[in-house]
Amino acid sequence: MIKLVRVDHRLLHGQVAFSWTNGVGADCILVASDMVVNDEVWKTTLRLGKPNGVKLVMKNMEDSIKAINSGVTDKYKLIVVVQTIKEAKQLIEGCPQIKSLNLGNTKESKTTTQVSKQVFLEEEEKEILRELIGKGIECEIRALADDAKQDVAKSL
After folding, report:
1. Judging by DSSP bridges, how do beta strands 113-114 and 120-121 pair with one another?
2. Which CATH number belongs to the domain containing residue 52 in this structure?
3. How many CB atoms lie under 10 A from the CB of residue 148?
4. Using CA of residue 125, residue 141, residue 119, residue 2, what is the dihedral sign?
5. Which residue range forms the structural domain that includes residue 95?
6. Exposed (0-12), middle (13-18) or buried (19+): which is 108, by Cβ within 10 Å?
7. What are 6-25's pLDDT values in tens digits?
8. How far is CA 99 from CA 89, 102, 107, in A?
9. pLDDT of the residue at 66
10. What is the C-alpha separation between 84 and 66, in angstroms, rounded?
11. How many structural domains does the chain have?
């Protein structure tokens, strides 16, 4: 059962590994990323950040969608982490059972607008979020599990 789908450009780090894993009672983290599966250094780094007693799986986007839809992940209390809002859209479109999205950390650049302390959005990402919200997906900003939810719709 999916407990959380999170956008975080850092993927697996303290906030995900400890706050969110404990906060939602997760026993498995799925890193869904086309880039990570081909980067041995990054995969090793992510393995080092994994909490004890929590399974870590790293798959490309297509295989992540297939795994979720096949039911093989149903036995886990699952956190799915993607790097970008575009990846989140791909995942949500491929997995209709996903009904909510957490924005944790996105990269700042010259072309982004800051919408929270740790979330910066490109215009294209704002459009994607508006589209997801329009389809009934709950989109919220929260760095830590015990933080107050910030409604993305009010930040666009």
Report:
1. antiparallel
2. 3.40.35.10
3. 7
4. negative
5. 2-155
6. middle
7. 999 999 988 788 899 999 99
8. 11, 11, 24
9. 99
10. 19
11. 1
Q: What are phi and psi of 139, to 5 degrees?
A: -115, 125
Query: Alpha-carbon distance 94 to 88, whole Å?
Result: 10
CB 31 within 8 A of CB 128: no
Report CA dihedral (132, 100, 7, 38) to the nearest 10 degrees.
-90
pTM of the model: 0.95
Over its length of 156 residues, how does the chain's per-residue pLDDT go in tens digits? Answer: 999 999 999 999 887 888 999 999 999 999 999 999 999 999 999 999 999 999 999 999 999 999 999 999 999 999 999 999 999 999 999 999 999 999 999 999 999 999 999 999 999 999 999 999 999 999 999 999 999 999 999 999
Residue 28 forms beta bridges with which residues? Answer: 55, 78
The residue with tokens 């870590």 is 56
